[in-house]
C-alpha cells in the first residue's frame, strides 16, 4: 500500500471513529436528559449504570439518599436489591455442589431431619425453582429467622406436591440459606462476604445493613416517609452501582460457578417464571441474556444484560415507582436509535 492510500485509510478510520464517538455522546446526552426529566417529575430517584459495547458509558446518581431531602445520592451509596439478592444463595448452592458437598437432588430432610415429613419430598432443585409447595412466610408474625423456623417446624401440609407447580415465595430462599449454613458451618452472611463478594472483587457489599452502617440509601414513599431497615428473615445483600456491575460481570464470566451450574439456576420451571438467577439465556459457555428485578420496602432494582451488544443496564431506586422496566426500555430505545416513551409524570403528595 503506497503512502497516499495509507493516508486516506488513516483519515477514513479517524472519521468513522469520530462519527461513532459523536453518535454515542449524543445518546448519552439524551439518556441523561431522560433521567433528569424523570427525576423532575417525581418518577425516579436513584442510581443508574449503563454499559454499551462492554464499556461503562453512564454512572449517574440523581435525587436524595434519604427522606430528609438534604443528602444527595452518589454512586458509593448501597441499595437493597430485593429479590436479586436471592442470586447469592442460588449461586452459593451451586458452589457447594461443585465442591461435592451437596447435590441439588438432595432432599431437605438430609440437612434438617427434625423438620416434618414434607422435608422428605422437597429437593434443593425444588427450592431453586420455587416448586417446593412451601407456603409464603407469615410476615405479620415472623420478625426473625427463629420465628420462621418455628413456623416450618409446625407446618403440617404443603400447598401442593413438590415439582408439580410453581409458587414464588421466600420460604424457598430461607431454606436455601439455611442449607448453606448447615453445610459450611458458618452463617450465610459470612459465607457471602468471604466466599462470594471477595472473589467477585466487591469491596463494599453489605449484608443486612443496620442504622449504624454508612452509605446506605434509605427508602421512602411519595410522602417522604422513610422506611426502617428491619427485615423478617436474614441474608439480604446490598450493593452500590459499581459493585452491582461487578456482580453481573462475575455471573457472565463464571467467576464463581461453571457454565453448567449457571445454566441450572437460569433455567426456570416453565416460561415466564423465576429461577435462581431470575431469567435469561445461556448458549454453550456464554450468557446471552440475564434479567432480574427485585423490590423491598420502597426499594426497587433491575439488572438486564444483552451480550450481543455488550450491554448492561442497572437501575437502583430508593423511592419505588414500579417503572424500572419502562426506564430500561427507554434507555434501550435510545441506544438503538428508536423512539422512546417519556415517563408519565406522577403526583407526589
Taken from the alpha-carbon principal axes, the silhouette is globular
CATH architecture of the domain at 18-103 and 185-335: 3-Layer(aba) Sandwich
Structural class: alpha+beta
Strand content is 15-25%
CATH class of the domain at 18-103 and 185-335: Alpha Beta
> How many β-strand stretches?
9
Give the name of the CATH superfamily of the domain at 18-103 and 185-335. Answer: DD-peptidase/beta-lactamase superfamily
Number of helices: 9
* Largest beta sheet: strand ordering: 2-1-9-8-7-6
If you consult CATH, what is the topology of the domain at 18-103 and 185-335? Beta-lactamase
CA gyration radius, whole angstroms: 22 Å
State the helical fraction: 25-40%
Elements, N to C (H/E): HEEEHHHHHEEHHEEEEH
Secondary structure topology:
Blueprint: H1 3-40, E1 46-52, E2 55-62, E3 79-80, H2 86-98, H3 124-129, H4 145-154, H5 170-184, H6 188-197, E4 206-207, E5 237-239, H7 241-253, H8 259-264, E6 279-283, E7 286-296, E8 299-306, E9 311-317, H9 324-335
Antiparallel strand pairs: 1-2, 1-9, 3-5, 4-5, 6-7, 7-8, 8-9
Model description:
The chain has 349 residues and is of the alpha+beta class. It has a domain at 18-103 and 185-335: Beta-lactamase (3-Layer(aba) Sandwich), CATH 3.40.710. The protein contains nine helices and nine strands. A six-stranded antiparallel β-sheet has the order 2-1-9-8-7-6, sandwiched between helices. A three-stranded antiparallel β-sheet has the order 3-5-4. The longest helix is centred in the first third of the chain and has 38 residues, at 3-40. It is globular, with a radius of gyration of 22 Å. The N and C termini lie far apart (69 Å).
Amino acid at each position: 500500500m503506497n503512502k497516499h492510500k495509507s493516508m486516506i485509510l488513516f483519515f477514513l478510520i479517524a472519521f468513522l471513529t469520530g462519527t461513532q464517538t459523536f453518535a454515542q455522546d449524543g445518546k448519552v446526552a439524551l439518556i441523561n436528559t431522560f433521567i433528569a426529566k424523570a427525576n423532575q417529575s417525581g418518577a425516579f430517584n436513584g442510581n443508574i449504570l449503563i454499559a454499551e459495547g462492554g464499556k461503562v458509558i453512564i454512572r449517574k446518581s440523581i435525587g436524595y439518599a434519604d427522606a430528609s431531602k438534604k443528602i444527595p445520592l452518589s454512586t458509593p451509596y448501597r441499595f437493597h436489591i430485593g429479590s436479586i439478592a436471592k442470586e447469592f444463595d442460588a449461586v452459593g448452592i451451586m458452589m457447594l455442589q461443585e465442591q461435592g458437598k451437596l447435590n441439588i437432588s438432595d432432599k431437605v430432610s438430609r440437612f434438617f431431619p427434625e423438620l416434618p415429613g414434607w422435608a422428605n419430598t422437597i429437593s434443593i432443585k425444588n427450592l431453586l425453582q420455587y416448586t417446593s409447595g412451601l407456603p409464603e412466610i407469615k410476615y405479620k408474625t415472623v420478625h426473625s429467622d427463629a420465628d420462621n423456623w418455628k413456623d416450618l417446624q409446625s407446618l403440617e401440609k404443603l400447598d401442593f406436591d413438590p415439582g408439580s407447580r410453581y409458587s414464588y415465595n421466600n420460604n424457598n430462599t430461607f431454606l436455601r440459606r439455611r442449607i448453606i449454613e448447615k453445610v459450611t458451618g458458618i452463617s450465610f452472611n459470612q459465607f457471602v462476604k468471604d466466599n462470594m463478594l471477595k472473589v467477585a472483587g466487591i469491596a463494599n457489599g453489605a449484608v443486612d445493613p443496620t442504622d449504624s452502617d454508612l452509605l446506605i440509601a434509605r427508602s421512602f414513599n411519595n410522602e417522604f416517609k422513610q422506611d426502617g431497615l428491619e427485615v423478617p428473615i436474614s441474608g439480604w445483600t446490598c450493593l452500590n452501582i459499581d459493585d452491582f456491575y461487578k456482580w453481573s460481570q462475575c455471573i457472565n464470566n463464571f467467576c464463581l460457578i461453571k457454565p453448567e451450574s449457571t445454566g441450572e439456576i437460569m433455567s426456570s420451571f416453565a416460561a415466564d417464571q423465576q429461577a435462581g438467577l431470575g431469567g435469561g439465556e445461556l448458549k454453550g459457555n456464554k450468557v446471552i441474556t440475564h434479567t432480574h428485578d427485585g423490590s423491598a420496602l420502597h426499594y426497587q432494582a433491575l439488572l438486564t444484560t444483552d451480550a450481543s451488544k455488550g450491554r448492561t443496564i442497572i437501575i437502583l431506586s430508593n423511592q419505588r415507582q414500579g417503572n424500572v422496566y419502562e426506564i430500561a426500555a427507554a434507555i434501550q430505545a435510545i441506544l438503538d436509535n428508536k423512539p422512546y416513551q417519556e415517563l408519565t409524570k406522577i403526583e407526589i403528595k
